[in-house]
Amino acid sequence: MIHDLLIMSTIPVSKETKKRLESIKGNKAWDEFLNELANMALNEKRFKHRKRMQKLLEMEYDDTRVRKWAREY
Questions:
Q1: What is the pTM (predicted TM-score) of this model?
Q2: Domain extent listing, the chain
């Protein structure tokens, strides 16, 4: 599969941050490592949202109605 031309860019970070990232990056390319890091962060966000939604779905109707009313005032 032929990929589109990759346009490279730089991301300014402090030397301390770069050193910390390098210590966990291992032998991976920066692009691969940062994509994995971004995917992990997104998965964590999704997990938290799913957990919140599950709690809302488990709530009784009266509980959700009271909470909505409380937010309005």
A1: 0.62
A2: 19-72
